[in-house]
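#struct-queue
[09:14] JT: dropping the first one here, sequence first, then the structure tokens:
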Amino acid sequence: MTASLHQIVYISRATAPLSDDTAAALCRSAAERNRGARFTGLLLRGFVPR
């Protein structure tokens, strides 16, 4: 089987403020799900002025 490499880039916005603990829980959950699907990823979190 030949491996394929795909790249997806997206931007999302929280609908409510996200605490550090909630962001860490989100990262852990996504990492677990992604490992099962053989995905890798990176979450960049920052402040975006409105």
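[09:21] JT: and here's the second one, same format:
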Amino acid sequence: MSYAIGVALCLLPCVAAGLSMGLATGKAVDAVSRQPEAAGKINSILLLGLALTESAAIYGLVIALIMIFTR
């Protein structure tokens, strides 16, 4: 039972990454709608932030898979 809890805790970064990516995308859309001339700069910063957030989710998923398959 504690093993399943450990795997679930490893998957929490995936949930947090999904929520934060949705929030960041919404804020970027809001920023572009307010200042369309800054769309290129906002887009590049958004993509960098999304890549870093996605890497944290991938690390959590990989650790959870390692825990599942090395039992």
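[09:30] RK: nice, looked through the second one.
[09:31] RK: The chain is about 90% helix and 0% strand.
[09:31] JT: good to know. The domain at 2-69 is CATH 1.20.20.10 (F1FO ATP Synthase).
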